[in-house]
């Protein structure tokens, strides 16, 4: 158990150190082919689930995340992880700089930071770009398809609240189920 904990802590510390090197700017789109057949999204969430009512802007951002996931050739599970991450980070709102209430220079749907190599403020606040940047980081996580959502999201995001992503898994799964084939 100590070895697993030590490796986890060292892995997270390493990701925090490499920041932009890990996810960084998009050099190329994902190369994992999508078969065109929908993959059933599997909910792995445990514990209390949160939900919010979405307005038109938030729904448009859900659709943009799904479109970018398809463009990257990734399955529904990647869209679920992306949407749950955005629900936690911004409530699916494309946030600009929030001044002192903001976490450093975090922007956009995923609260990505230009200073960490995610892209320029203009890029990060573009829903397609920010989603593709997130997905690029996700693709670098070995076994992301089968790990708990919160672990996959945390490995990419390196959040101060690593367990917070799981609370959005049911709503993210419902949104992907509702919008994937539209």
How would you characterize this protein structure?
The chain has seven helices and no strands. With 182 residues, it is mostly helical.
Features:
0% strand; single chain; disordered N terminus; mainly alpha; 7 helices; 182 residues
Short summary of the structure?
Helices cover 47% and strands 0% of the residues. It has helices at 2-18, 56-71, 76-90, 121-124, 127-139, 149-157, 169-179.
Ordered list of secondary-structure elements with their pairings:
Layout: H1 2-18, H2 56-71, H3 76-90, H4 121-124, H5 127-139, H6 149-157, H7 169-179
Helix pairs in contact: 2-3, 2-5, 3-6, 3-7
Output the radius of gyration.
15 Å
The percent range for strand residues is under 5%
Helix percent reads 40-55%
Look at the helices and sheets and give the structural class. Answer: mainly alpha
Main beta sheet: none
> Quick one: how many beta strands?
0
Question: Given the structure, what is the number of helices?
Answer: 7
Catalogue the unreliable spans: 1-41
Distance between the termini: 45 Å
In round numbers, the mean pLDDT is: 78
Form type: globular
Please provide the ordered H/E string of secondary-structure elements: HHHHHHH
